[in-house]
Automatic annotation (TrEMBL):
Taxonomic lineage from the root: Bacteria, Bacillati, Actinomycetota, Actinomycetes, Propionibacteriales
Name this protein carries in UniProt: Inorganic pyrophosphatase
UniProt xrefs under SUPFAM superfamilies: Inorganic pyrophosphatase
Biological process per Gene Ontology, one example term: phosphate-containing compound metabolic process
Domain of life per record: Bacteria
Organism of origin: Propioniciclava coleopterorum
GO CC field: cytoplasm
Length: 102
């Protein structure tokens, strides 16, 4: 799917969440253009630091405030990037489970 849809990074690494400025994105974050995810927007995607790694897995998140679940693809990332994202999600109210690509 990632090969057929352009990745649009709208929250670069180091940027702050527009509504929650205490949340700083540890990696590039965006969406796949011309797709639809669980929230009606494009499918979410994290872009890591290992170009060429391709799709390595996804985080499944459950947000009690929005009462929804989403899948966030993990692209061009390595084990260190996954660990960074696990630390990013750990203190947040939404639950997150990493599912590696088989």
């Amino acid at each position: 799917m990632v090969a057929r849809h352009a990745v649009r990074v709208d929250r670069p690494r180091g940027s702050r969440h527009p509504r929650f400025p205490e949340v700083v994105y540890p990696l590039d974050y965006g969406y796949l253009e011309a797709t639809s995810g669980g929230d009606g927007e494009g499918i979410d995607i994290w872009v890591g630091t290992r170009p060429g790694a391709g799709l390595i897995g996804a985080f499944v998140t459950a947000d009690p405030h929005k009462a929804d679940m989403e899948v966030k693809l993990v692209w061009d990332a390595g084990p260190d990037d996954v660990a960074t994202l696990e630390r990013f999600y750990a203190p947040q109210p939404q639950g997150a489970l990493y599912v590696p690509r088989p």
